[in-house]
TrEMBL record:
Residues 70-241 form the Extensin-like C-terminal domain. This is Extensin family protein. InterPro entries: Extensin-like_C. It holds the Pfam family Extensin-like_C.
Amino acid sequence: MRPAISRHIGTFVADRRAALLLVLLAILLIGRVWLAEHPEHDPWAPLDLRDPPGWATEAKLLALRDDVPACRAVLDRSSIAHQVLDPVGEGACRREDRTRLGEFPLAPDTPAVTCPASIALLLWQRDVLEPAAQTSFGSPIARIEHLGAYSCRRLYGRDTGPWSEHATANAIDIAGFVLEDGTRISVLRDWDGEGPKARFLHAVRDGACNSFATVLSPDYNAAHADHLHLDMSPRWRGVCR
């Protein structure tokens, strides 16, 4: 090959590499600018519950399950009214993380649950419950009725075996809903069928799986015939039945 041709080819290859590098740098710069404007998609951006759900939201939520300080920082950053209560209990039922949401429509009371469970409840209400209630009934939710959060027991009341997530209030059982127009929706009475109440209950069960680690409904077994079990177990993810 002639030297001139060889130099020409070498210059062409170098120019192509430089152009490719410039294109890649431009893509990276545009990507960083876009992520800065859409932090819900940025895996490195601190989670703020005021942002809409995005590609990175689920991973950020899962990371909070074993990081209570980071979880509480999310509540503070998001300006969520809440109380951090003192630890109580002993052994496997000791509750180190006790967080009580303020201005949240749980009934008959607002129990203290773990911080990750609190955040999952907030997102479920905002992104699933309220839109589903408006779509199905044209009315917002006034009350979310529950059967309790804390219960110092093992799974299914057994004497041995794994402890329930209720043992540390990392779970809550939802029995039904009352809308502002007075409509009542009960898991026990309204789960089965093809009517709007049944469709609503199935929709909010399915939607809960985007926020909670475990979601169990009447479709799971008879023990859940009257409630939706929602928890933030650090042991597994993706149980949605």
